[in-house]
Amino acid sequence: SVVNRIDAVENSTAAYLSLQTEEALIAARAVDEKLRERKRRTPLEGIPYGLKDNMCTQGILTTCASKMLYNFNPPYNAHVYDRLIDEGGILLGKTNMDEFAMGSSTENSAYKITHNPWDLNKVPGGSSGGSAVAVAADTAFYTLGSDTGGSIRQPASFCGVVGMKPTYGLVSRYGLVAFASSLDQIGPLTKDVEDCALVLNAIIGHDAKDSTSLKLEKKDYTQNLKQGVKGLKIGVAQAFFGEGLQPEVRKSLEEAIEVYKALGAEIVDVSFQHLDYALSAYYMISSAEASSNLARYDGIRYGYRAEEYDGLVDLYKKTRSQGFGDEVKRRIMLGTYALSSGYYDAYYKKAMQVRTLIKEDFEQVFGGCDVLLTPTAPTTAFGIGEKTSNPLEMYLTDIYTVPVNIAGIPGISIPSGLDNSGMPIGMQLLGPILSEENLLKVAWAFE
Ligand code: GLN
C-alpha cells in the first residue's frame, strides 16, 4: 500500500512534515468494507492524498513550515479539505514547503529539506516541493499545492508530474494561510492529466466564506478531455524563449510543438509588450501583500512566542525575529518599504499599473490563439544549496510562471521530456480566464 511505500522512501525524499498513516489505514479499511457492498460513491473515495502544510486541517498541525506556527492546530478546516472529506478522500499527511510559501526550492522550510526523487541531490522546486515529491515518489496518489507565483507548476516541472494553477477565484482560499491574497490559488498535483481533471472537479465551486470565490456552476472537466486539438490555435511567444533558457528545455518544447502540429493544431506566433516587467511587479505586489498578511503573527494570539521579553514591543520584536526565517523577513521588509508613505506611488502603485498592462497583454495574445505554450521554468531542477545564497537568482526561476498569477489566468505544467542528465522538463500551457477545460484537453492530447 501507499503506507508501505511511505515507510520505504520517506526517509530519503522527506516530502512530509507530518503523517497520519495510522488514521489513514483505519479510514481505508472502512472504505474497503463499504466497497464490498457498493460502488465507489465518488472517483476519489478511498484514495489517499496529501495536503500542503499551509491548508488548515482541524486538530492536525498546520505549520506553513515555519517556526512561527510550530504548534498551530487550526480550529477549522480549509474549504478544500472539507471538499475532499466529502469526496471520501483519505488524508495521508501534510507536505513540506518553503516557509509561508516563499521560495522556489523548498529549502526555506524551517524543518527539513525535501529531495527530488529523480536525483536526491537536487531540489524538488518550490514552494509546493513536498506535494510534488509525494506524487513523483508514489507516496500519495495526488496532492494539493498553492501557487502564488508558480509554486505548483514549477515543482511539478522539476519532479516530472502534472500541476495546475486554476483561474483566480475558481477554488476557494478559505483556510489557506495567506501569502499574497490577490495571487494565491490552490490546485492539484497529479500523475497524469486525467487525475488532474478529477481532483479539480472535487475542489472547485463557490464558497461564501471566500469573497473572491467565483459564482459558477460545478463542471465536469473529464467530459471533453479526450476531444483532441484539431483546429486549435496554439500560440508561441519569443518572450518565453529568451536568455537563460536551458538548451534541452528549448529543444523539448520545439519537439512538443511538432507533436501538436501532427495532432492537427495550428501554431501561431504571438507577442508580448510588457512581460519583462512581470517578475519585478510580482515581487513588489506579493511582498506588499505578505507584509500585511503576516502582521498577524505577533506572539499574542497563537503560534510561537519569544520566551523572554521586556514589554509588549520587545515581545513583538523578539517573537518575529525568532519565529520567521530569513526569506520571510526579506519579503516583509521589502513589502513594508514598498507600502510606506512617500514610496507607495513609486513602487506599489507602479507595480499595480504594470499588473494591468500584463493583463492586457494576455488579453491581446488570447485574441490570436486559444492556448499559449511556454516552458514552465528556464531550467530543470538545480542542486540543493546551489542558489540559497543568491535570492535574485532564485527569483529568476519564476520568470515564466509569475505572469500567470499577475493576470489571474489558469496554467498547467506537464512533463515534456528529460534533459541530458535524466531530469524532467516541464511544459506550461496557459489560457484565458476559466479556460481550464480547454487547457486540460490540450495537455491530455500531448500526454
Ligand atoms: N517562488 C515564488 C515566490 O517565492 C512563488 C511562490 C509561490 O507561488 N507560493 O514568491
From TrEMBL:
GO cellular component labels: glutamyl-tRNA(Gln) amidotransferase complex
Catalytic reaction equation(s): L-glutamyl-tRNA(Gln) + L-glutamine + ATP + H2O = L-glutaminyl-tRNA(Gln) + L-glutamate + ADP + phosphate + H(+)
Matching NCBIfam families: gatA
Domain Amidase: 1-440
InterPro entries per the UniProt record, alphabetical: Amidase, Amidase_CS, Amidase_dom, AS_sf, GatA
Name of the protein in its database record: Glutamyl-tRNA(Gln) amidotransferase subunit A
General function of this protein: Allows the formation of correctly charged Gln-tRNA(Gln) through the transamidation of misacylated Glu-tRNA(Gln) in organisms which lack glutaminyl-tRNA synthetase. The reaction takes place in the presence of glutamine and ATP through an activated gamma-phospho-Glu-tRNA(Gln).
GO molecular function list: ATP binding; glutaminyl-tRNA synthase (glutamine-hydrolyzing) activity
SUBUNIT field: Heterotrimer of A, B and C subunits.
Residues in coiled coil: none
UniProt keyword list: ATP-binding, Ligase, Nucleotide-binding, Protein biosynthesis
Cited Gene3D superfamilies: Amidase signature (AS) domain
Domain of life of the source: Bacteria
Gene Ontology terms describing biological process: translation
Residues annotated as catalytic: 52, 127, 151
The protein's Enzyme Commission number: 6.3.5.7
Family classification: Belongs to the amidase family. GatA subfamily.
